[in-house]
Amino acid sequence: MNAIPAELFDWSQNAPSHLFYQTGGRRPFIERAEGVYIWDAQGRRFLDGSSGAMVSNIGHGNKRVLDAMRDQMNATTFGYRLHFENEPAERLASVLSKLSPQGLDRVFFASGGSEAVESCIKLARQYALAKGETKRTEVISRFPSYHGSTFGALAVTGYGPLNDPFAPMVREMPKIPAPRAYLDRDNSSDEARGLRYADMLRGKIEELGPENVLAFIMEPVGGASTGALVAPDSYYQRVRDICDDYGVLLIYDEVMTGVGRTGTFLAAEHWGQSPDIIALSKGLGAGYVPLGAMIARRDIVDPVVANGGFMHGYTYAGNPLACAAGLAVIREIYEQDLMANTARIGALLKSRLDNLTARFPFIGDVRGKGLLLAFELVANRETMTPLPKDANAFAKLVEYAYEEQLIIYSRRTHGGYEGDHFLVCPPMIATESHVDEIMEKLTKSLDRLAGELKLPVNG
Ligand code: PMP
């Protein structure tokens, strides 16, 4: 064996980092993780109250998933898809087809959410081309929204700071407002509001010319950009009907909501919806492997395949190790009945968050589905006036919670209304006692924030 150059692997924790993705200062090194907890290098134990970035759905260190990965690793970790098929990818595609709405039984794998979204957009485009509808290029999305960091996914993302630097390079796609009905102060019913927001899609399609519109992409429950935004029930079917009226494909970005996070395998199920194409990622690899997937209607895929094939692909697509992990993750969700637990613990956590509004009048809204939950802080609940930006509440509260060894996830919203929202999304294995621990730490953190920002506290 060759000698390794003396300094090649020298490294010290205290040396300046060569990575530059970290913003907001350095964090402790992660040492190990198990269940809902993460330990840092100093032995401190954190409750993972956001499952990372809504990723670690079945918790950390699941032995059966690790065993399934080890078994697969002992066989092979890679087989290039143009040379070999692999059983884990076939099996996972079969499972995903069975868990998707009728007719959506064609699966394409990727390594993350952005890649999955790119795949959806490119499939939609090639479907239009296969049908001879060559003018269809506009993909309408919502503002704010988050669909990923790659150029295509960024074009449909509506989140100013992420879009702006690339404005000259990306053809920004047309946007309609996200259905933030909780901000509306008119007297209309929830149902009427839902229809009003959905009808903005019709307005936008008409404005662009229906023959130019390819697809509409939305997060069925909003994620990082809107903070677990749930539209009024009437929204979902109306959007479906409008897409059908104009032959516009409906893409559900279920990267965050999918694989059980909202208490059903897909969030679409809450509204009995059948989109045309679905993107999955986060909870599919669940923090064990990078994995994403697109699930599409067979009658969309078939013409594309017949027309010369899907001009798109990733080297790691359908990687056997990643797919074996994804299969084991879904098996765990069923074996431990984690979707039922998510619905039950999610309802409990949401009611406990609702109760916080009595003590903290600066909590303006609590929302979400299953264990995709969020609350929003405001200066005035009646008018939903946001806290001033320079109060930096979104960063401060996360920091205070971190000091209590609770991890939550926050963003300052964009898109006409700027507010501070916080996602509280523990893994789907969370129990009542974890909810107690989250609430205790969160209450302390909110008390501290109130003191710091001189916000009122009751009792
Ligand atoms: N879509 C949604 C709804 C997301 O929440 C995310 C990630 N936050 C993405 C797409 C992009 O996924 P990734 O970071 O894995 O590329």
UniProtKB/TrEMBL annotation:
Signal peptide residue numbers: none
CDD domains registered for this protein in UniProt: OAT_like
Record-linked Pfam families: Aminotran_3 (PF00202)
Required cofactor(s): pyridoxal 5'-phosphate
Highest rank taxon of the organism: Bacteria
Keywords linked to the UniProt accession: Aminotransferase, Pyridoxal phosphate, Transferase
Gene3D superfamilies linked to this entry: Aspartate Aminotransferase, domain 1, Type I PLP-dependent aspartate aminotransferase-like (Major domain)
Any one GO molecular function term: transaminase activity
Statement: the UniProt record of this protein carries the keyword NADP: no
Family indicated by similarity: Belongs to the class-III pyridoxal-phosphate-dependent aminotransferase family.
The protein's name: Aspartate aminotransferase family protein
